[in-house]
Design brief:
Elements (H helix, E strand, L loop, with lengths): L3 E6 L5 E7 L4 E7 L20 E3 L2 E3 L1 H4 L13 H4 L4 H10 L10 H12 L5 E2 L10 H16 L6 E7 L7 H17 L4 E5 L20 H16 L5 H9 L3 H20 L1
Parallel strand pairs: 1-7, 7-8
Antiparallel strand pairs: 1-2, 2-3, 4-5, 4-6
């Protein structure tokens, strides 16, 4: 069975991975979104567009939501907005939507009354998940789900997993995710060699002009990584991957995982 090396660039919405054979051929290469709990698509027949609104456990894109009896919510009818308003603004809002009540009325009672009146009339928006607010338990579960799906046919062939080491003081959350990923592979196969790799290695030994002569900013290094990646993929055997890479919106993350893997394989094959 051929040895395979998996290179991972840690992320939540954009975890990049590249799976190589020992002779540096790409097996799999992509981006994984660990923040996705559920993908919601429009429930209308023949429509698979991403859903924007939901009501009564049914999800709709904007086009088909407009054909339903419920209204599209504006900012002022959403509970998050209403709950923050001062009492006079609440009185004005109640008047605008013809909501009747007896005076005097406490602010919290008026908030509840307005929300109760508007809720049956409007769709609920499907909120995008903020990766920085997503709890680590959900991320951990998603690591298992996503990696199980992706590596189902490869896990028995993987001998080495290399993960970019997270060292920044502001990267505590990413450091935890790094550990979760390592633990996933330990539990899959305790014989897999797992290494945490410094980010400085990705451009080591590369031939790009002045790459080692000038102090580069983070953005500079990302652009250099993309450029070097394109150079290495510019071969007949990699034409499919070259096309995949050039069309992808997250070239920087893909390049990080790819170049880290190439550096590691070069180092291993010299031994």
């Amino acid at each position: 069975m051929n040895k395979q090396v998996l290179s991972i660039d840690v992320g939540i919405k954009n975890l990049a991975f590249c799976l190589f054979t020992n002779d540096e051929k790409i097996v799999k290469w992509d981006i994984v979104n660990l923040s996705q709990e559920t993908d919601f698509n429009c429930c209308s027949l023949g429509c698979d567009k991403p859903a924007k609104f939901t009501k009564n456990n049914q999800c709709y894109c904007l086009k088909h939501a407009k054909k339903q009896p419920f209204k599209i919510p504006t900012a002022e009818v959403k509970p998050a907005f209403i709950n923050k308003q001062k009492i006079q603004a609440l009185h004005d809002l109640a008047a605008k939507y013809n909501i009747k009540y007896e005076k005097p009325i406490k602010k919290q009672d008026l908030v509840s009354l307005i929300n109760k009146h508007l809720e049956p009339l409007y769709f609920d928006s499907i909120q995008k998940i903020n990766a920085s607010h997503m709890n680590l338990i959900t991320i951990g579960r998603n690591i298992k789900i996503r990696l199980d799906e992706i590596l189902e046919d490869n896990i028995s062939s993987i001998t080495d997993v290399i993960i970019e080491n997270q060292i920044s003081p502001i990267a505590n959350r990413m450091k935890t995710i790094q550990g979760m990923i390592a633990q996933y592979f330990i539990m899959k196969n305790s014989n897999i060699n797992i290494e945490f790799i410094s980010s400085i290695n990705k451009l080591k030994g590369q031939t790009l002009e002045k790459v080692d002569k000038v102090d580069k900013t983070y953005k500079d290094r990302k652009l250099l990584g993309i450029k070097r990646c394109l150079e290495l993929l510019n071969t007949e055997e990699n034409i499919t991957w070259h096309t995949f890479f050039t069309k992808h919106t997250k070239k920087d993350d893909l390049a990080d995982a790819f170049l880290q893997g190439i550096w590691y394989l070069h180092k291993q094959n010299k031994q």
